[in-house]
Each structure stands twice: as structure tokens, then as C-alpha cells.
Specification:
Chain lengths: ~170, ~425
């Protein structure tokens, strides 16, 4: 069963992808993801887990490894009150769903760190499975959703270039 | 009435009506990449796409993050960078000449009216020249290099309006820390930030670059300043052609559009921001007597020629406190040479400074030179996130070069006006 990783503090790019390991291969960098604030994250996160953060998720550097390590570790979506602009674009470009919570939404008290969840990308919906409570995120604009459906910007461009070659 | 941001995007996208909220595709005039997010990341993607860069003349490459080379890994990164630049026939290559955001303008690459992207979050620095410039990640950059275009949502403009005039020993850095303190790191909402008002147009170009640079810390996409005679004089000084239509971009109407946040420059005191966020800013006086181990003058934000001159002004005929280490990493080779010619480097050295290469240095936290466990640093850089500049237990306070230099002398944090009056 997938779980929710809920963060109260602001998550910056430097705790997601620490500078000192930026020269290392992605697998090694991913081992240090969030270690400054949640040392057990990289070793405990499982494919399908969802990361939920507060305001300005991914603030800081342009390093896309900040989103890439989460995808590498199997995180299926990042949900936040708001995103830093570059991180948001990077996540979408890498095919990692980034969803914003509605501004007026009060999160249910059951939405805690470690909660069992399921996530449906097509519906932008997170479900707390133990309580059968659903949280509807803001829908992703359709042209960005198409990019995520293709697997990110690179496969999206491959598709476009192959059409251009044909025509 | 359109904003400067709308005008720049309308021109780049050939959609004269560019309305706020519209998604448009823009042609890119200049794409800048560096050794970390650049060739080593975009080369495999371009190969997968079967494309070369769309126009080598519109690409600039700078090595600044893995400088100096200190391991086999970083040596390989630099060799890959050089080989790729040669292979793609890119002539705008600045190898170990300084930090990308400072090297681009000093080589005349940024002008009013341009639409640019950079593979680095401090790319809004280019906005100081009346260009729309913003940072993107490596995959998106590969897309730009393959196609020459990028999508953008036409932003609102958040005006940061500074009336009045700054007092001596108060700088653009203090203006930005005060702004971060007031509206927070998300205050820019990924919209276009535009700086306006008398105090902005008083600033020289490198001080304006500090304003635009730290639009990143406000969460803005761009950090624009309308071009004026100072902009044009700078372009001429670096031998760049002045666009004939530059006055078309003299658009600054904070009372007509968007959100306006007002500041009085005359009332501003030197600022310090406490760990671990630039928004923890307050008057330097509030941090008086806070002990420190390291004083750092570095980065695109805080080690340009103007910043070195400010530090030297405070440090002339003085010595740093015996328990303090002062490290200076001039932001570009050209700025360092100019400072040397004017005797500023000698002043810094005589005061007890150690020099680091012309690169991102400790600010990026990529290399061997890092803060140690529990070290307290006062720094002229832009970011004091936990662990960014070294050990997670290290503490970074942000301030202007004046304040960093004065604190190095005092051995504790201090308002630079206290040192200069003493």
C-alpha cells in the first residue's frame, strides 16, 4: 500500500538534491534526497508514494534533479499548496505529476504523514484509503497533462518530431 | 495598456495582444547554459531526439559550477563540456571566466527587448537590462536547444516600487533582503517582478543586477527593470550594439497595472537575514553581537566589481578579527582584474582576505570548499538554505558586502555604519 509523506516545512531544491552530490550519478544523489530534514526518506519511500508539501514546494535552484530524484525513488505525485515555478515546470517536463491543492481547501485531519493512500492522475485525486476520504486537487491544464501522459517533454518532442518527419 | 513583461513576450511570440494568463510560444533570442545543468545533461537528450542546437549563435556556455576542477568526476564534466561546445560549433563559450550571470552582460550578450532563458535559477539577473530572462531545468533547456522556442503563461506584474534615495552604506542587497522580509520567498508567485522608482534608477548596472538576480528569492519568474540612459551607457562601455528601438521598452507604470508594493529607500537600514531563509530579514542592528566564524564575499549576487569595491571601502586600512576567516570569490575574471587595477584586491588582501577562484564557490556548495559543522557564516550571497553551503548544522546569515566586511572586522555581526563611524 502506498503511503503519504507529509511535510510541514518549506522544501527547497537543496534538501531534495544536495549540492555536494550533484556531480554523482542520479542513484547516489537520490540516496541523499531530503536527508537534511527527513533522514529516513530515501531508504523508506516506496514506489507509488505521494509527497505532500505546503507553500512554495521546490523553491531554490533550477536543478531538475530535485524533481528527478523523487521520480527515481518512485514517487507517483507531488501535491502542494503552491509550487516554485521552475520546480513545477521541471516536474512536468520529467513526467512527474505536480498538483496544487485548491486555495480554499481545508485538509481533513486524517491527512497525516504515513497515511495509506491511492492516487489517480486522470482525476487529480488523492484518496485516504483507510477512511475513504478523497482530496480533489486542481486539474492540470490539458496541454501539460498531455506532456505527462506522454512521459514528459522528451517523449513528447519525439512524438512531435516523428510527425513532422512524416509530413 | 501593456506591461514591460507583456511587451517583451508579445514581441517574442509575435502575438501583439498577449493577454495576462494566455499561454504563448516564444522564440528564444539567447539560451545560456553552464557546466552543471548544461552539456552533461542536454547532450544525451539532444542525441535521443536526433537534433543539434537550433542556432549556435544564440547559445552561450559558461563553466562556473565545477570550477576549480578537484576530482576525476569534475574533470570529466569539464572535458565533456568543451568537447560538446566544439562539436556544436558554439563560439560564445566562456571557460572559467566567471559566473554565468555576470559574464553574459560583461560580454555584451544582454540587451533591452531580448527574450532569453538560462539553465540556472538566478537567470532573472538578465532582467536588469530590460530583457525577459528566466531560469529553466535541463530537460526543458534541451527542448529549447532542439526547437529554439518555449511556452510561457503571460504573467501578471508585481511592482516593487522604491521611492526616494538610498543612504550611504545601504545597497541593492539590503533592498532585496527587505523585500524578501516583507513579501516572502513566494511573494512573486512566479509572476514578472518589476522594480521601479527613483532609487532603482539611481543604481548602477551591477547593483540593478543584484535586484533582478534576487527576483529568484521572491519566487518571481523574471526581475525586470525598464532600460534608461544608465543601461545604454553600460552597453556602450562593453562594446555592445545598442538596439535602435530600446526606448520602446521604457515601460514603467506601477500605478496602472498589477500589484504594487511600496518602499521608501531613504528609510532603509542595512539588513541581515537569519538562517535558513532570505525572508528572515531584519535591520542589521537587530543581529548586533551575533558571533561568526566565516565572512564570505561571493557569488553572482554579491561579488561583482561593485561588491568588491564596497568591501574594500570598509576594509581599507583595517584588519579582520583574528578568529574570523574572510573568503572572497570575485564573480568574474574581468571584475577581478578591474578591482586589481584599482588597488581593491590589495586592500582586501592586506585586511586578511583569502581568495577563491572566479566561480560559484561556496554558494553552490558543489566543491571541497564548504562550511564545516556548526560554523556561522555571514555571506553576501542570495540563499541561506539549510546545508546549501556545507554541513547541515552550519548557519548562514545574508547581508550586503558592506555589512559582511564590517562584521569581519568587528568579529561579530554589525551595522556597517557603526564601523565606519568608529
Amino acid at each position: 500500500m502506498a503511503r503519504l509523506w507529509r511535510f510541514q516545512e518549506t522544501i527547497d531544491t537543496d534538501v531534495l538534491a544536495p549540492g555536494f552530490y550533484m556531480k554523482a550519478p542520479l542513484e547516489e544523489l537520490a540516496d541523499h534526497c531530503l536527508e537534511a530534514i527527513r533522514p529516513e526518506f530515501a531508504s523508506s519511500v516506496r514506489p507509488g508514494d505521494v509527497v505532500m508539501a505546503g507553500e512554495n514546494m521546490g523553491v531554490g535552484s533550477s536543478r531538475e534533479q530535485a524533481a528527478e530524484v523523487l521520480k527515481h525513488l518512485g514517487v507517483s505525485a507531488v501535491i502542494a499548496r503552491s509550487f516554485a515555478g521552475i520546480f513545477y515546470r521541471n516536474a512536468i517536463n520529467l513526467g512527474l505529476p505536480a498538483l496544487t491543492l485548491p486555495a480554499d481547501l481545508d485538509l481533513p485531519s486524517e491527512c497525516v504523514d504515513g497515511a495509506e493512500i491511492s492516487f489517480e492522475f486522470d482525476q487529480s485525486r488523492l484518496t485516504l484509503t483507510e477512511f475513504d476520504i478523497s482530496i480533489e486537487c486542481e486539474p492540470i491544464p490539458s496541454f501539460l497533462k498531455a506532456m505527462i501522459d506522454d512521459g514528459g517533454l522528451v517523449p513528447h518532442l519525439e512524438k512531435r518530431f516523428s510527425t513532422e518527419t512524416v509530413s | 495598456m501593456t506591461t514591460l513583461a507583456q511587451k517583451l513576450i508579445a514581441d517574442a511570440s509575435a502575438t501583439p495582444s498577449a493577454k495576462i494568463g494566455d499561454v504563448v510560444v516564444c522564440a528564444v533570442d539567447l539560451a545560456m547554459i553552464h557546466d552543471s545543468g548544461g552539456p552533461r545533461r542536454v547532450k544525451p537528450i539532444l542525441e535521443r531526439l536526433g537534433r543539434d542546437v537550433w542556432n549556435p549563435e544564440r547559445v552561450a556556455v559558461v563553466t562556473d559550477h565545477y570550477v576549480p576542477v578537484e576530482s576525476d568526476e569534475t574533470k570529466a564534466i569539464q572535458e565533456l563540456t568543451r568537447a560538446w561546445v566544439a562539436n556544436q560549433e558554439i563560439s560564445n563559450f566562456y571557460d572559467q571566466q566567471g559566473i554565468c550571470h555576470v559574464v553574459l552582460p560583461e560580454r555584451g550578450h544582454l540587451k533591452p527587448g531580448m527574450f532569453c532563458v538560462g539553465g540556472d535559477s538566478h537567470s532573472p539577473t538578465g532582467g536588469a537590462f530590460g530583457a525577459y530572462m528566466f531560469g529553466i531545468g535541463a530537460t526543458e533547456m534541451a527542448g529549447v536547444l532542439a526547437t529554439g522556442e518555449i511556452w510561457i503563461k503571460v504573467p501578471e506584474t508585481v511592482f516593487i516600487h522604491w521611492s526616494g534615495h538610498l543612504n550611504p552604506l545601504v545597497t541593492a542587497k539590503d533592498m532585496m533582503l527587505a523585500t524578501c522580509g516583507k513579501i516572502g520567498m513566494g511573494g512573486g508567485r512566479y509572476q514578472a517582478v518589476q522594480y521601479a522608482g527613483d532609487a532603482i534608477h539611481d543604481l548602477n548596472m551591477q547593483e540593478r543586477m543584484t535586484m533582478s538576480n534576487m527576483a529568484a528569492e521572491l519566487g518571481g519568474q523574471a526581475g525586470l527593470i525598464a532600460p534608461d540612459e544608465t543601461t545604454i551607457a553600460y552597453l556602450q562601455s562593453v562594446g555592445a550594439d545598442v538596439p535602435e528601438n530600446w526606448q520602446d521598452y521604457q515601460i514603467e507604470q506601477p500605478d496602472l497595472n498589477g500589484e504594487v508594493i511600496n518602499f521608501d529607500a531613504a528609510a532603509l537600514s542595512p539588513q541581515i537575514a537569519a538562517p535558513h531563509s532570505p525572508e528572515n530579514a531584519d535591520d542589521a542592528e537587530a543581529f548586533k553581537n551575533t558571533p561568526l566564524d566565516v565572512a564570505y564575499i561571493g557569488a553572482c549576487t554579491g561579488a561583482k566589481y561593485t561588491d568588491l569595491k564596497a568591501a574594500a571601502f570598509v576594509l581599507a586600512h583595517k584588519k579582520i578579527a583574528s578568529h574570523v576567516t574572510l573568503k572572497v570569490a570575485p564573480a568574474s575574471l574581468r571584475d577581478q582584474e578591474r578591482a586589481k587595477d584599482e588597488g581593491l584586491m590589495q586592500i582586501l588582501q592586506d585586511a586578511g582576505a583569502e581568495f577563491l577562484p572566479n566561480s560559484c564557490g561556496i554558494c553552490a556548495g558543489y566543491g571541497r570548499d564548504r562550511l564545516l559543522e556548526n560554523q556561522v557564516c555571514i555571506s553576501s550571497t542570495a540563499r541561506n538554505f539549510k546545508g546549501r553551503m556545507g554541513a547541515p548544522s552550519s548557519q548562514v546569515y545574508l547581508a550586503s558586502p558592506y555589512t559582511v566586511a564590517a562584521s569581519a572586522i568587528a568579529g561579530t555581526m554589525i551595522d556597517p555604519r557603526d564601523v565606519m563611524e568608529a
